[in-house]
Amino acid sequence: MADVDATDARLLLALGEDPRASVMALSQRLGLARNTVQARLTRLESNGVLAPFDRRVRPEALGYRLGAYVTVQVVQRSLAEVSRGLADIPEVLEVTGLSGVADLLVHVVARDADDLWRISEQLLAIPGVQRIDTALALRRFVDHRMGPLLESAAGEA
Fold first, then answer.
1. Which CA distances in Å does 117 have to 90, 94, 109, 134?
2. pTM
3. What are the mean pLDDT values of the chain's consecutive 10-residue runs (157 residues total)?
């Protein structure tokens, strides 16, 4: 992944404020040539700096009103197999490797408590999963954000 410089950060902040802005509008707003903005956007997309668009879709809009974080303990040397098994479950939004007692932190969504039970059973059925612990997400106090980091990178902080 490429580093983001101050100009890239300013461009990303402008996109965050108006995701539908045209290249021309962005170039006028930032005082950059249209070709510069287009080239930077293309580079940011091709280098994986920009997350996929589906990251912006809220699970609640699809009927998944219950969120949970599941810690998973894995049998030694089964991490790759367990990760593939988790990726096959549509309700698994994200899997993060951890240090400490738990090996993985799995963010899941469910329609209701019965659905979460079904998903938990699927997790436990993956070969290599030893144990899971589930914590319900009750309320989000700070949404996923990048603005403060981009402002710092842009020299605006």
1. 15, 18, 11, 10
2. 0.85
3. 88 93 96 96 91 87 97 94 97 96 97 98 98 96 92 85
Q: Are 97 and 103 in contact (CB under 8 A)?
A: yes
Torsion of CA 129, 135, 141, 147, to 10 degrees: 0
Strand order in the sheet with 92-97: 92-97, 104-110, 66-74, 129-137
- Indicate where the chain has its CATH 1.10.10.10 domain(s): 6-54
Which fold would CATH assign to domain 6-54?
Arc Repressor Mutant, subunit A (1.10.10)
Type of residue numbered 43: R
Helix (H) or strand (E) holding 153: helix 147-153
C-alpha count within 13 angstroms, C-beta hemisphere, residue 83: 12
Side chain identity at 117, as an amino acid letter?
Answer: W
Element holding 134 (H helix, E strand): strand 129-137
Tokens of 112: 């209701």
59-137: CATH number: 3.30.70.920
